[in-house]
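Q: My hope is that you can spare some time for a protein that puzzles me. Underneath my words sits a plain record pairing an amino acid chain with its backbone structure tokens. Those tokens are not coordinates but codes from a learned vocabulary of shapes. Thank you; the sequence and its tokens follow:
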Amino acid sequence: MIMPRPRDEDATRPIGLEPLRNVPLFRDFDDTELSEVAQLVSTRRYAKHQTIFREGDPGQTFYLILGGSVAIVRVAPDGRETILSILKERDFFGEMSIFDTAVRAASVRTLTDVEVGAIERDDFLALIDRSPRIGRLLVIALSERLRAANKLISATTSQDIRSRLASLLLNLAQNFGEPVPTGTRITLRLTNQEMANMIGTTRETVNRTLNRFWDERLIDMRTAHVVVTEPEKLKAMVP
């Protein structure tokens, strides 16, 4: 029997133009410009639950997500983990190392099998010099992330657990949802601990609150993927 080739995070592969067309940073690029970008990108694959880099690591690489999802993670001195955000296909991360040569500000862990396109710092800075509109789009994307982070911090400190979990489920349904007859199926599977790490509570509290939502017919958990069945009622919980 032929064994499958193991994934190698250090293996690099060339990239075609089509994956780059889907990345918002390059949305206005023509084929010639995309070809120039493609020459700078090397693709890497990571298995589910693998760490791409850790908080405190030196960083010189910018990453485009070509497939899959990752979590941006901070770990407190007492070991408690906080998931700051979840990024999916067409998103990017590692941008801090492009403009600041200090160490990584957070860790990045895969939530699924992931393929990324990696661009080294000097190459990306040269690309911005040639195409300033990338810089403008990058600033817009970072501003949107900052607003989302501020909203999450505000929710975590001012809302009760039901409101926080309702907001998280609505966000996941919006970003990772697909329509099914009973509602919106969240295609990304998070553990209860991962959800707890996103809203600042415990795994047991998330489990208990999810079961209450199920009892109230706000969600359906009969399969491995949560289905949001009553989004309007969940929205009513969020201030």
Notes: The longest helix spans residues 132-158. Residues 1-11 have pLDDT under 50 and may be disordered. The chain has two domains: 17-156, 159-235. The CA atoms of residues 156 and 199 lie 6 Å apart.
